[in-house]
Amino acid sequence: MSIRNPAAESRAPANAENRYSISGADLPLSCPMPAMALWNSHPKVYLPIEEQGGRAKCPYCGAEFVLGN
Predict the structure, then answer these.
(1) What is the separation, in whole angstroms, between the first and last Cα of the chain?
(2) β-strands 55-57, 45-46 pairing
(3) Which of 9, 24, 25, 62 has minimal CB crowding within 10 Å?
(4) If you write DSSP's letter for every residue of the chain in order, what string do you get?
(5) Does residue 4 lie in a domain region?
(6) What is the count of structural domains for the chain?
(7) What are phi and psi of 66, to 5 degrees?
């Protein structure tokens, strides 16, 4: 039996890009997203991208999210 070590898992760096394309599978949208490393990021904030025409901007880091097909 192997023990899961979250620190050793591969994670995307938080706030590494300025623009992210997301899909419906990523909803509800939060920044940082679940696949991002949280140790060097800001507090999690949920972004109502569906109510904003498929675009949202994080008030903490300025990352822009675009909802695709």
Answers:
(1) 39
(2) unpaired
(3) 25
(4) -PPP-GGGS--BPTT--SEEEE-GGGPSPEES-TTB--TTSPPPEE--GGGGTTEEE-TTT--EEEE--
(5) no
(6) 1
(7) -125, 125
Residue 1 forms part of a structural domain: no
pLDDT band for position 69 (cuts 50, 70, 90): low
Domain of residue 20 covers 12-67
Mean pLDDT for the chain overall: 82
- Mean pLDDT, to the nearest integer, of 13-36? 84
User: Nearest-CA neighbor of 66 among 35, 11, 52?
Assistant: 52
Domain assignment present for 53: yes
* Percentage of the chain modeled with pLDDT above 90: 57
Indicate whether 3 belongs to any domain: no
Is 40 within 8 Å of 14 (Cβ atoms)? Answer: yes
Measured in whole angstroms, the distance separating CA 45 from the mean position of its chain's CA atoms is: 9
